[in-house]
Every structure is written in structure tokens, then in C-alpha cells.
Design brief:
By secondary structure, the chain is an alpha+beta fold. The protein contains 19 helices and 35 strands. About 30% of the residues lie in helices and about 30% in strands. The structure holds guanosine-5'-diphosphate (GDP) and magnesium ion.
């Protein structure tokens, strides 16, 4: 017998499975029917410790012999080169494992806000979500967008407060900060045992058992330290009161000062979690392997299964095969792999899914795949080379059963772009093909061929997102890419009109070229674009050449005197001459082009810059900083109000020049701990004059040289 903190340490046979745990299991399960495979999705901010937690879970479950670490680059997850090099999760880590006879798939999501689309889609496969939180109350706000999303989707979730060994603050303080970010009541289920500055274990508030942490080993059951008794009963009371809000029977017992039976408490916790009425809060350390078995047990006993999840998602289960396509993954050795969650039925090798015959079925384990011959309800599997399957598809055995998820998360609008071109000109086709695959994996990326600037723009959610895309192009598809800042699609217009007489005449030997046009150039109101008017009378310009003149004029407008496309201009062709032999389409086209090229410089040309309407969402405490950002970017405030349905958030509408939008997301995120976001759309063109205009024109001229 060892002594610890004045408490008696009693090592028990089955790790953290003290006497009574079995009883609890029986109560929860009611019978011994084998459970269907379940899926836990791990989310949380970057560096909260999600990948380390997955590693700790796999080790505690006996699925790995050795616990890897992120800094050492030997975790099961983060196996691809981009992730290893950065020590950062860049793609969801999908890992199949078993724990005490139950089958699980864990999906560890990237934490970067720029990679949120991966989280959004992974959530569609989740029976339960583990939100990994930092122990610092000052960083709790970063969880708000995630917790809101979970609340909106009613996905059962627990919060795992990680790095508890570092916790400088009281858990109650942290809980208050987290509660501010969550619409659902948080229910603390464990309290830490503190010895001086360190946390050496915890008390489970349901079983009222105290546990002593061991480094990367299951905890030891100890007697409740005397110093913990008051704290424990107070915290337990709070937990019970939170549950009583959803159960009159429990409320009565509490009012009568009765102690509810442990089995009943477990039952209510399970029911409330499964219905997403409460959010249990657990503590631990992924790095030191503390609190992991407790987490696994809670998942085991309390997480809902695929049937309940299918019901929550509104997926009809009619007895046959029912599956959702969650994601597309391109892998070197398997080609296109569709990540599929089976809700009901079995899928065997050789059988069809969504009318397609998979080349193989696989379990995923980080960077590796294992071929399997069949998968059952609840399983998350890779399905090989089914080109017709895409994320959001609901698939049965046959094609006609397939439909779309009603609430499949739409990709967020891209907010950041880079101009890309292949280093090797011959790779042009390979580049667009490879980018198409990246977009299939991650639809929050987009490709645009900009007609004004002639740049190929890769759009995404931020700098890291695009850097990763560029690295993948190199590592996975062997296409080296050069990147540049995108050019702003400026335009130009004129402030007044003029009359032009343009003659094109060339005599070279045989038959020559002749065309003569008289046009009136007019300034048009903003937003008119281009208008061509045929006002020729008496056949001065024959019918068949008029469209050639228009074509030539349009060509001349592609690049005005300042170097940009010309808009809001009208050209009226009212007279001209022709020659029965020498006139041609070509000649009239040239005359038309010449006319505008000669005329426009005399019309007081002026630069137009694109202005976007931008709607910015931020936590209210960041409002004044965001106002500062908007005004320093030449923004024009249109209004602001509380974000509808989002307590503590504001929404700002403004007009911002497109040139100022290009890196807005970077500054906005740094001013809001990553929580701020915006959507935008082109609104109008606006005159740009003075120094800023001169600068743009100068840069354009230099680029053209
Ligand atoms: N002290 C401490 N460090 C941790 C803990 N969990 C993770 N880390 C470290 O935090 C860093 C980020 O961990 P990682 O698992 O990659 O975080 P993720 O971005 O949420 O996946 C790594 O250096 C980990 O070693 C923990 O419980 N305690
Ligand atoms: Mg990670």
C-alpha cells in the first residue's frame, strides 16, 4: 500500500474500471447486444492537443503499442509530408480502432480556422464530438464558432479540457469562460485534485471516486482526499441540478434532499448528452495520458449509435443499405477513395454502392489503409475508385436510391486568393486537373480564370490554406507552381465624350484596304457597361460591315489609355464611307478600333476601382478594432447590428475597395483570435483619383513593359 497526499492508493485489477463499472455498463446497455460501430470526431482550436489526444486514445485502447508524439513526428495521424513538416494537422486523420470490443472511427480534424471545411464535413459523420479545449480561460472565446455550430446542428458533444497539468486557473473560472461560448449548459463531470501547483488526479462526480494520474498509464483508484470532500460535493450538487433542469423526478429528489441512485444519474447523463441537452466537461492531459480511459469509457457508454445519428440527420432507414459519402480523398496507391459512413446494412466486397462497384473497401488508419472484405452498420470506410460518388451523396445499393443530404454544409465563400502558374509551361493542363482534385477533396478551395487580369486565381480561406494547396500540388501531383499576388481588376471610363473620324486605308500592290467611320463616343452612367448604336443612314457603311465596326470598337475598349478595360461608354456609329473592292470586315474592324483608341484619350479618362459589399461577423468586444480596420482600409460603413441569433456577436456591413479586401482576412483574424469572418460580393465601380490612382496606373505601365 502506498501513501499519497494523505490518501490511500489502492491499485485495482482492471484499469480505471473499479468495482461497479460493470454494473454501470449493464444499466446503460440493458442487454449484451453488440453495439454498432460508432464515430467520434475530434475538433478544437489549433494546438489544443487534438492529434495528441487521438494518439493517447489509441494507446489507451491498446490499438497501438507505443504512444507517438507530435513534436517527434511519429503519431498515427498527421502522416503526410505537409503535416509532419509543420507539426500541424493538415487533413482529417481518420483512424479505425476497437476498444473493449466496440468498433470506433475517430476523425481528428485540423484546428486551423482556414481548414474549417474539413471539420464541417466530418461533423456529418459524427455520433459524438470531442471538443478539445485549452485550459486557459483567456482562450475559451476561440471555441465559440465551433460550439455554436454544434449547438445549431444539435450534435452531441463533450468538452475535453486538455493540458490540465498546466492549468493555472481554477476549473470554475475556465468553466464560466467556456459557458459564455456555449448555448447549452456545460456540466462538469470531474474535478481536479491539486497538490500545490500541479494536478495529480481527479474525482469523478458520478461515482464519487478519486483517481491518481499515472504517466501514460491508467489512473489508480485512491481514497477521496479529505481536502476534496467539500469541493466534490459542491460540484456534484451543481451537476445534479443541471440534470434536474431536464427531469422533474430528479428535481423532486433534490428538493427533498434525497441522493439519487448512481445508475439513475448515469442514465440521465446519457440521455441528456444523446439529445444534446447538456455538454459534459472532462479534464485530462493528452501528452501525459491522463483522463483518457475516463473519456473512452464515457464514449463507450454514452455516445449514441448510427441509428440515432441517422435519425438526427433525417436520413431514412428503410431496411436496406444506407450510407453517406463524407469526403473524397486522393491517395497515391488507391486513387480516388470515397470516405463513407454506413448507417444501416452491410457492404461486402463486390457489392455496389450508389450503383458503383468499388475497387476495394478499406479501413483507414492515419496515412495507411487496410483492405477489408466487408463493413457493417456504423462503420466509416474508404471505398475505392467510385468516380460517381461525391461528398453529400446519400447512397444505397443502387443508383436510384441515391440522393443528397438535405443539410450538407455548403463550402464557405473564399476570402483569399493567389495567382498561380505552373513553373513548367507544359504543366498547364496537369495543373488545372490537379487543382480540380484538390477542390473535390476540399470545396472551400476554388479556381478562377480572371478575364480582366488574365490571371489564374486559386481561391481559399487564407494564407496557410493556399500554401498547403501549393505544397500538395508539388508533393502529390508533382506540379511545381509559381505564385503571385492577384491583381485588382481595375477598370477605366471617360468623363465626357467626343467625335472621331477614323479612316483606315492601305494600298499595297493588288487590292487594298479601305474603311472610313465617324463615331460619337459618349460617357454613360455608372454600371451601364458598353452600348453600341448603329445610326448609319443611307448605307454610308453597308449593313454587313457594321458588326465589324462594333467588334473593332470592343477590341479597342479592352485596354484604354490608362491600361485597363473601358466601361460605361457608348459608341454611336453615324456615318462613314466604303469602297466596293477594298472594303472588308477586317478593314472596318480596324477602323472601329482606331476610332476609340484615338478618341478615348481626349475624353478625360479616369480610373475605376471595384468596391465590394462586405459583411463582417465578430465577437462584440472586437468591434472597435474592426471599425479601425475598416476605416484604415478606406472602407465606408453602411451599418452594424447584433448578429441575429448570436449573443455577444456583431455584424458590420461596409463598402470596401477590392484591393483592400485581398488580405483583410489576415488582419481580421489576428484582431479576433481567429473568430472573425466575412462574406463579400462585388457591388460597384467607383472613380479613383489623385495619388492612389497615379500609383495604380504607374504600376500597370511598369508591368506592361
Ligand atoms: N503540456 C501539454 N502539451 C500538450 C498536451 N497535448 C498536446 N500537447 C502539445 O501541444 C502541441 C499541439 O498538439 P497537437 O496534438 O498537435 O494539437 P492539435 O493542433 O490540436 O492537433 C504539441 O506540441 C503537443 O505535444 C498536453 O496535454 N499537455
Ligand atoms: Mg492536430
Amino acid at each position: 500500500m502506498r501513501r499519497h497526499n494523505g490518501a490511500t492508493i489502492t491499485p485495482v485489477g482492471e484499469p480505471v474500471n473499479g468495482p461497479g463499472t460493470r454494473v454501470m455498463e449493464d444499466v446503460v446497455m440493458g442487454d449484451s447486444t453488440p453495439r454498432e460501430a460508432r464515430c467520434a470526431v475530434i475538433v478544437g482550436p489549433y494546438t489544443a492537443g487534438k492529434t495528441t489526444l487521438l494518439e493517447a486514445m489509441l494507446f489507451a485502447a491498446g490499438a497501438t503499442q507505443r504512444k507517438g508524439s507530435v513534436p517527434q513526428g511519429n503519431t498515427v495521424g498527421d502522416a503526410n509530408p505537409e503535416a509532419r513538416q509543420r507539426q500541424m494537422t493538415t487533413d482529417p486523420n481518420v483512424v479505425h480502432f476497437t476498444y473493449l470490443g466496440d468498433t470506433w472511427t475517430a476523425i481528428d480534424c485540423p484546428g486551423s480556422v482556414e481548414l474549417m471545411q474539413d471539420t464541417r464535413t466530418a461533423l456529418m459523420a459524427a455520433d459524438i464530438v470531442i471538443v478539445v479545449a485549452e485550459p486557459d480561460p483567456g482562450r475559451a472565446a476561440a471555441l465559440a464558432p465551433l460550439l455554436r455550430a454544434l449547438d445549431e446542428l444539435s450534435i452531441p458533444h463533450v468538452i475535453f479540457v486538455n493540458k490540465i497539468e498546466k492549468a493555472p486557473a481554477r476549473v470554475s473560472e475556465l468553466l464560466a469562460a467556456l459557458q459564455a461560448a456555449s448555448a447549452r449548459p456545460l456540466v462538469l463531470r470531474e474535478v481536479p485534485i491539486r497538490e500545490g501547483e500541479t494536478i495529480t488526479g481527479y474525482v469523478d462526480l458520478v461515482s464519487e471516486r478519486a483517481w491518481h494520474y499515472n504517466e501514460n498509464k491508467p489512473s489508480d483508484l485512491i481514497a477521496m482526499p479529505d481536502s476534496m470532500k467539500d469541493r466534490e460535493s459542491e460540484a456534484r450538487q451543481e451537476m445534479l441540478e443541471a440534470l434536474a433542469d431536464f427531469d422533474d423526478g430528479l428535481m423532486e429528489q433534490l428538493l427533498e434532499d434525497k441522493v439519487p441512485a448512481t445508475a439513475e444519474v448515469y442514465q440521465q447523463l446519457t440521455r441528456d448528452l444523446q439529445q444534446d441537452l447538456i455538454v459534459p466537461v472532462l479534464i485530462g492531459s493528452a501528452e501525459h495520458g491522463n483522463g483518457i480511459v475516463r473519456l473512452l469509457k464515457i464514449l463507450r457508454h454514452e455516445a449514441p449509435g448510427p441509428r440515432q445519428t441517422a435519425e438526427r440527420l433525417g436520413i431514412p432507414l428503410n431496411g436496406g443499405l444506407a450510407a453517406s459519402v463524407v469526403r473524397t480523398i486522393y491517395q497515391a496507391h488507391t486513387g480516388k477513395l470515397s470516405l463513407v459512413r454506413l448507417w444501416q446494412g452491410e457492404l461486402k466486397e463486390g457489392q455496389t454502392l450508389g450503383g458503383e462497384r468499388p475497387s476495394g473497401l478499406y479501413h483507414l488508419r492515419g496515412g495507411e489503409v487496410e483492405k477489408i472484405s466487408q463493413a457493417g452498420a456504423g462503420d466509416v470506410i474508404g471505398v475505392g475508385r467510385c468516380d460517381g460518388l461525391k461528398p453529400g451523396d446519400l447512397a444505397g445499393e443502387a443508383k436510384r436510391e441515391a440522393g443528397q443530404h438535405a443539410a450538407w454544409p455548403e463550402a464557405p465563400q473564399p476570402v483569399y486568393a493567389l495567382a498561380v502558374q505552373p513553373q513548367n509551361r507544359q504543366d498547364e493542363v496537369k495543373l488545372t486537373g490537379s487543382i480540380a482534385k484538390l477542390i473535390e477533396e476540399d470545396p472551400s478551395l476554388a479556381l478562377e480564370h480572371n478575364h480582366d487580369t488574365h490571371q489564374m486565381l486559386l481561391w481559399g480561406q487564407g494564407e496557410i490554406h493556399l500554401q498547403l494547396a501549393v505544397e500538395r500540388l508539388k508533393n502529390k501531383y508533382n506540379v511545381a507552381v509559381r505564385t503571385q499576388r492577384p491583381q485588382t481588376p481595375y477598370k477605366e471610363t471617360i468623363r465626357h465624350g467626343t467625335d472621331v473620324h477614323s479612316r483606315f486605308k492601305r494600298q499595297s500592290g493588288g487590292h487594298g484596304q479601305f474603311a472610313d467611320v465617324k463615331v460619337q463616343i459618349k460617357a454613360l452612367p455608372r454600371g451601364s457597361g458598353f452600348q453600341f448604336e448603329d445610326a448609319v443612314v443611307g448605307g454610308a457603311v453597308p449593313r454587313q460591315f457594321i458588326s465589324s465596326v462594333e467588334e473593332g470598337v470592343k477590341e479597342g475598349l479592352l485596354q484604354g489609355p490608362l491600361g485597363f478595360p473601358v466601361v460605361d461608354v457608348g459608341v454611336r456609329l453615324h456615318d462613314g464611307q466604303y469602297h466596293s473592292v477594298d472594303s472588308s470586315d477586317m478593314a472596318f474592324k480596324t477602323a472601329g478600333r482606331q476610332a476609340v483608341q484615338e478618341g478615348l484619350p481626349k475624353c478625360d479618362p479616369v480610373l475605376l476601382e471595384p468596391i465590394c459589399e462586405v459583411t463582417i461577423d465578430v465577437p462584440s468586444d472586437a468591434m472597435s478594432r474592426v471599425h479601425g480596420i475598416v476605416s484604415s482600409r478606406r472602407g465606408h460603413l453602411l451599418g452594424f447590428e447584433g448578429k441575429p441569433g448570436w449573443d455577444g456577436w456583431d455584424q458590420i456591413k461596409c463598402h470596401l475597395p477590392a484591393s483592400e479586401l485581398s488580405d483583410l482576412i489576415v488582419e481580421l483574424r489576428s484582431a479576433t483570435q481567429g473568430a472573425g469572418s466575412f462574406v463579400w460580393r462585388f457591388d460597384h465601380l467607383q472613380e479613383l483619383t489623385g495619388r492612389p490612382a497615379e500609383k495604380v496606373i504607374q504600376e500597370r505601365q511598369q508591368a506592361a513593359q
